Amino acid sequence: MKHDPGYFEIRLATSERDLMAAQRLRYRVFVEELGGDGDLVDHDARLERDEFDPVVDHLCLIDTRRSAQDLDHVVGVYRLLPGSRAAAFGRFYCDGEYDLTPLRESGRTVLELGRSCVDPAFRGGSGMFLLWNALADYVLDNGIEILFGVASFHGTDATMLAPSLAWLHHHHLAPADLRPRARPEGFQPMDLIPPDRLNRREAMLGMPALIKAYLRLGGMVGEGAFIDRAFNTTDVFLLMDTKAMSDKHRQFYQTRWQQNQ
To answer: 214 and which of 30, 75, 219, 236 could share a cystine (Cβ 3.0–4.6 Å)?
Structure first.
C-alpha cells in the first residue's frame, strides 16, 4: 500500500491489534458519536463488532504517532467484502437491508464497502484521500466492476431528511437491472418531494459528505431508504460502476488529491 510523506500509513489490517483498533474507532464513531448499538458490540471494551469482521478485509488509515498498544493508531477504516468471499460466507452485510438479487444476477464482479469512518480530528484532510487511493488500488488488483454499500444519514425521521432523499431518488436512481430495493421491514420511500419542488442547495446541505463524494464519482442509489433503528440511522444503498466512471470524475479526484498535498 502507498504511504503518505508524513505520518500516515495505509494498510490492510495485519494483526489482531489492528482489527481491535479499527473496532475501537468504529465504537467511538458509530456508538458514542452517532448513538448506535448491536448484538456483538462490546461496551465494556469499547469495541464495535459484528459477525462479518472475521471474513472481511479492513483497510486501515494508520497514524504512526499514535500508540498501537492503546488501540489508538487506526484513525480511518473501510471494511471490504469481495463477492466471492461473501458467497462462501453466505451473504453480504447489505442483505439485511436490501434485496441484492439484481446485483447477484448481473454477472459482474462486486465489492461491498462498509463501516467507513474517520476519526473526527482527521476529517476533511488528506486521510480520506489516502483511503480512497488505497481503495482504488484494491479495486484494480481484484478486478472489481461494481462497488456498493449502504451510507447513512443520522437519525430516523425521514421528514427531516426529505430534501436529500428526494434528490437522490429523482436524480441518482440506479438502472432497473442493477437496482436493489430496501426490504419491507425497514422500507422508507425516498420520493417524498416532487422533483419540481426540490431545491438543490437545500438537498446538498443535508447530504452527508461521504454520499456527496460517491455522487461526484458517478454513484447511484437503490430503491427506497432503510430505517436502521439499532444504529439510529436512515440508510441508502449506493453503488458505483467502475466501468462507467468518467474521466471527468477521475480528474476531479486527482485534482482534489493534488491540492491536499
So the answer is: 219
